[in-house]
Design goal:
The chain is of the alpha/beta class. The protein has two domains: about 170 residues, P-loop containing nucleotide triphosphate hydrolases (Rossmann fold), CATH 3.40.50.300; about 70 residues, no CATH class. The strands form two sheets. A six-stranded mixed β-sheet has the order 6-7-8-3-9-10, sandwiched between helices. A four-stranded antiparallel β-sheet has the order 2-1-4-5, with helices on one face. Helix 2 crosses helix 3.
Length: about 240
């Protein structure tokens, strides 16, 4: 029997009478790295925010880690990285990390270990003493990712985590995401535009105008649509150019 980390049952959402998420059902298995792929405005971030409990669906039910969303317990069980960085600009990188580590009720020893791990992973160890107001856009993205990983949650939800990050670090981050999935059995849901990232996912969900137009393993989608790449899959599945 499959266990699902996230389940959506007939979920829909509209803003100002415009449907952003059509009635949509979806199951994300535990221990998988799942990619949500689609152009800007297709509903990816809205879907993520509903799973996080930040937006209430107009209809339907959402469960995460077997709890009905929203649920206070989920706050400490999900590592969330938003599309826009939610950081304290007047604090240093280290002060930001320690602030969020305290919110997660980590012991002092755990806090120290996790801050070092997260800072090293995103290559910010030498910049932790600098105020975040002086960080570049890429550094802010890296700090946001570090914060999402701080409390070692079983479920990671990352909205465009590698936008603005250089190719070498992007590769290292994806290697760590793969390790977290394979060795620590974490479930990871990531939104992306990048074709090379899509290829690394266990399951790929393609979204257009609030509808799921394709959902399978990357290889199965290429085979099904006789496509060379995911742009072609998206077009043949009824989408537009990504």
């Amino acid at each position: 029997m499959k266990h699902y980390a996230i389940s959506l049952d007939n979920v829909e959402k509209s803003f100002h009478h415009k449907q952003v998420i059509a009635p949509l059902s979806l199951n994300i298995p535990t221990g998988q790295l799942v990619g949500l792929l689609g152009p800007s405005g297709c509903g990816k971030t809205t879907l993520i925010k509903m799973i996080m409990g930040m937006l209430k669906p107009d209809n339907g039910q959402i469960q995460a880690l077997n709890l009905a969303v929203p649920h206070q317990q989920l706050l400490s069980s999900i590592g969330y990285m938003a599309q826009s960085d939610a950081l304290y600009l007047d604090l240093t990188g280290e002060e930001n990390l320690n602030f969020f580590a305290k919110l997660y009720n980590l012991s002092k020893r755990e806090r120290t270990q996790r801050v070092v791990y997260a800072a090293q992973l995103v290559r910010l160890k030498d910049d932790l003493h600098i105020k975040v107001a002086n960080y570049s856009g890429g550094m802010k993205r890296r700090l946001s990712l570090a914060i999402a990983l701080l409390h070692n949650p079983p479920l990671l939800i990352l909205d465009e985590p590698t936008v603005g990050i250089d190719p070498v670090l992007k590769k290292e981050i994806w290697q760590e995401l793969m390790r977290l999935k394979n060795e620590d059995q974490k479930t990871i849901l990531v939104t992306t535009h990048a074709m090379d990232e899509a290829q690394k996912c266990d399951q790929l969900i393609m979204l257009r105008n609030g509808y799921i137009i394709a959902n399978d393993t990357p290889q199965a989608l290429k085979t099904q649509y006789d496509a060379q790449d995911f742009d072609e899959v998206f077009l043949k599945a009824g989408g537009e150019v990504l």
